């Protein structure tokens, strides 16, 4: 199955968030306190009235202790995700875009295609405790900061690190970098 219309996915995320919030018996105010996302914004997301940023969704998933992709329910046994089509999330600066690829049924592994624009950096939210991030460079060269260490990766190089600490991605070239990212949750 191909990914649906992005507007439908935004409505689906809102519906899923509302369902998860009610299952956890949380008010919008309580969810706001847990996530650091305003009550107004959470209400707009639940009603499908806003397209949340990737940072906002990370805050929400971390605040309710669920993997990021738990906000996107899929009942289909076969899912096809084509590059550049379907669901995409951009950072606030629009220089980092991720496309969810797959999640496994137990919600502990997720895969993404990520794009970092030329001469820019992305500093993601600290992920859930005990989360491992694996990044493979598909095109380009990237510098990855993990805590106080700096690593430069070229095409097809891979790195694995604990993502519940400080980390960032920097593209110091004039070409877009494409990454394949896998998250393994320890929650």
UniProtKB/TrEMBL annotation:
Q: Does the keyword Glycoprotein apply?
A: no
Q: GO cellular component terms?
A: cytosol
What InterPro entries does its record include?
Cro/C1-type_HTH, Cupin_2, Lambda_DNA-bd_dom_sf, RmlC-like_jellyroll, RmlC_Cupin_sf, TransReg_Diox_bact_type
A Pfam family that the UniProt record links to this protein: Cupin_2
Q: Which residues form the HTH cro/C1-type domain?
A: 17-71
Kindly state which keywords UniProt assigns to this record, in alphabetical order: DNA-binding
Please name the GO terms that the record assigns under molecular function.
DNA binding; DNA-binding transcription factor activity
Report the protein name in the record: DNA-binding protein
């Amino acid at each position: 199955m191909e990914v649906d219309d992005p507007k439908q996915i935004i409505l689906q995320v809102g519906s899923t968030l509302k369902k998860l919030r009610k299952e956890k018996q949380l008010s919008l105010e309580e969810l706001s306190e847990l996530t650091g996302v305003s009550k107004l914004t959470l209400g707009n997301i639940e009603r499908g009235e806003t397209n949340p940023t990737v940072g906002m969704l990370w805050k929400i998933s971390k605040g309710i202790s669920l993997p990021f992709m738990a906000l996107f329910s899929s009942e289909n046994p076969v899912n096809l995700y084509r590059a550049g089509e379907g669901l995409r999330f951009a950072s606030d600066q629009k220089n980092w875009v991720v496309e969810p690829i797959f999640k496994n049924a137990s919600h502990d592994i997720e895969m993404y295609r990520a794009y970092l624009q030329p001469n820019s950096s992305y500093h993601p939210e600290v992920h859930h405790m005990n989360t491992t991030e694996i990044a493979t460079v598909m095109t380009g060269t990237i510098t990855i900061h993990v805590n106080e260490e700096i690593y430069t990766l070229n095409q097809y190089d891979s790195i694995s690190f604990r993502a519940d600490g400080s980390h960032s991605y920097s593209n110091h070239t004039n070409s877009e970098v494409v990454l394949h990212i896998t998250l393994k949750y320890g929650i």
